[in-house]
């Protein structure tokens, strides 16, 4: 028996954390927002989510198995997460074939072309979304108006998002209550502020993410948009509307915090968050697009390696 | 709010299965194997040869340099041979084999149980006595104690910190010692204070040993200058630098010596050994060893003579369980996996941990997802995943610039990694390389 002893270097125990635990944790945190999207966008939301999730998982499996000849790692949940996040960034009346293209861009270009999970530079779901936004601008910017379990899909009645309405000079905006609950036009996962914040609280509790990235993004947007509002209250809406509209909360809580594409130290996370906040407001207020969150995150993703090399952890003994 | 160190740290399951078990003496084996290199520094030089008759406490090897320690016979009997033995590190080292004949002690050793509080020796005399008795750090690092009690020029000792943290999961030998030998420990601490002429000592104990904290606190009232400080349970608080940070809020600079903060850190077991050496003339030839593990039928804290093969300890704990996969010398975080159960107990053996087959196998690793949990866990403020990459690509310059030499090999990074990456394996390898390069540059 003794001849069969295992010999390995220390440590001899492991904490039990795993990649899949973290991924499934994020999926659980997305559940409240998922329910909100089903409530307001009904059948359309269901079709978009199922298509996106299944397509992302399938593309990853096919690419790993037949192109990269690796063992498929579907069980880690990361492809499902990418699929759900991509769906959350789409309008609920998007035709299936466009969703498939988006899923292929997200998984194929955004993730697997870099070598799979852990190697990608850009957030895969956002790569998919931005790919679609540039390729299909019309379909990607018509937003179904929310209802109560609507059973419409591509024939849904459409309207503008808060940000588009502002860009076009509209003066009537949804009430704060509607914005908090999600009763407004927009991509299907971004509308319910309270649901997204519930997810944030869950992830903090489970120690999946830290507060640094979301809080620094939200604080930067609030301050920057607040200054602009003080300068010209007519041209620029108040910061609360900025915080609650568009993909800001979804992006700050779930997209910018993607492990792989965000910095490793708390200091680096804050720099990264401030960068995203500033870019978002700049694009929203001065750019051609009404919404800047996706672009802001992707741009800061590109800066992550640079931030990592400058923002080192605080060395023991430097205090 | 309990104090702890300020950077990183983890909280592994404590699994102190043998907590509260009384220390019991282990019957003598038929032969002991006493390695000559069982401390940090130069191996000791043998003073005996085959056929020599020794008693318990007879010096059998003398320190082989400034950083080295004397070694004494732990049994009485006849030297069988001086030969190689496979020790806990997995390397063959010279050792003295002694066949046990009876249990006759050197007459100079005071074997009575009476507590002797009074010590009137001068600092130099205390240090000499400690050196003569071969005392080394009993927390596991086995640094010769007398060296630590002679602060290098330009540094000054301001206080003694006693490491009674026992932050390794499973191990309870220090805990048991504190419960049963509290008075002796406090006298030992007083002697240590005297040896470096300081008037203050802090005993740092993690708060999972409330009974020991209570006992020491009530007894410490009779001893001037000794404070018992309960600490938050956090691994690796037993690391010397971490403990200093926790207790006096000072961090040793990268590459600096702990004494630069004014603190002299000694293990609680060492304090007891110092008491026995100075007050009872007893050299260090026995220690308390925890034998534990989830499948072990009779986990225990044993008083064991140095040189006893660990097979005897495991038998006293109920034998090797059926599905044992790993035998570890030390705790699960920093202990060494042993190749056989014939490895002898040394001065640094704090515990024997038997792990089941299921516990012994590592899960397969996957890609790093850059979650930075290792960065948050690292108590030295390093970036373990970055260091692992640098090591894999043999970027020794980069590894040195990113302070790989500061790694204390606590294993918090590997423990935390969700992708099961062998961070410490790689870093340990890289650290060895970089230290070699630094040494070569200096010489």
Characteristics of this structure?
heterodimer, A: 319 residues, 2 domains, two-stranded antiparallel ribbon, 60% helix, globular, B: alpha/beta, OB fold (Dihydrolipoamide Acetyltransferase, E2P), Rossmann fold, Ubiquitin-like (UB roll), 4 domains, four-stranded antiparallel beta sheet, 17 strands, 28% helix
Describe the structure.
Chain A is an all-alpha fold and 319 residues long. Chain A folds into 2 domains: 20-137, no CATH class; 159-310, no CATH class. Chain A is built from 13 helices and 2 strands. Chain A has helices at 19-67, 78-88, 96-111, 124-135, 137-140, 162-167, 176-181, 193-205, 212-231, 239-244, 248-255, 266-286, 293-310, and strands at 143-144, 158-159. Chain A has a two-stranded antiparallel sheet with strand order 1-2. Chain A is globular. Chain B has 14 helices and 17 strands. Helix content of chain B is 28%, strand content 20%. Chain B has 443 residues and is α/β, with parallel strands linked by helices. In chain B, strands 1-14-13-17-15-16 form a 6-stranded mixed sheet. In chain B, strands 2-8-7-4 form a 4-stranded antiparallel sheet, with no helix packed on it. Chain B folds into 4 domains: 27-100, OB fold (Dihydrolipoamide Acetyltransferase, E2P), CATH 2.40.50; 123-280, NADH-ubiquinone oxidoreductase 51kDa subunit (Rossmann fold), CATH 3.40.50.11540; 286-360, Roll (Ubiquitin-like (UB roll)), CATH 3.10.20; 373-442, no CATH class.
The tally of beta strands of chain A, per DSSP, is 2
- What is the spatial order of strands in the main beta sheet of chain B? 1-14-13-17-15-16
Average pLDDT over all residues of chain A? 90
Helix fraction of chain A, binned, reads 55-70%
How large is the radius of gyration of chain A? 20 Å
